[in-house]
Known about the structure:
Elements (H helix, E strand, L loop, with lengths): L1 E13 L4 E4 L5 E10 L2 E2 L6 E2 L3 E9 H10 L5 E14 L5 E14 L24 H5 L8 H9 L4 E3 L7 E3 L1
Parallel strand pairs: 6-8
Antiparallel strand pairs: 1-3, 1-7, 2-3, 3-6, 4-5, 7-8, 9-10
Amino acid sequence: MSMRNDTIVIAGNIGNDPTKNETRNGKAVINFRVGTSHNYVDQRTGEWVEGPTSWYNVSAFGNIAEHAKASLHRGDPVIVVGRLRIRDWEAGDGKKGREAEITADAIGHDLNWGTSAFVRRQRATTEPARVPQPSDADAPSDDAPSADEGDAWRTAGLEVLVEDEASKEPAFT
């Protein structure tokens, strides 16, 4: 049974390629394991000492799951923020154990070990794109704001003035 449900931040490496599935309600879920260890230089000997590795089962849902599947791979150094749950289990053969599970609220590459490129997800638009009409191309080009545009700028707290009637360059006050 669950013993605790605390927020945790871990930094480690992904131990397997993330697998994406769906919940019964059709929501995306991704699962992977992260190994963390405390490695250090022994001050007496000057040698690198590898501490024991702790493994965490990480799950993420919705947008995080979609983005993680597209971004994360086995071996990647990551930082995970989420809710920790320690779960006791028992296998069919009677073997018992305990595992740490994190439901991730945020996941990112650990930039101590390399670089990463961020690509913002495009939001779906609710309005269809405007298709130019043939009359649009035939209309005279006038860069000065129309009366309607001027009203929109004034509503935003800006006054539209045309400084040079010849250039029709708008100026805002």
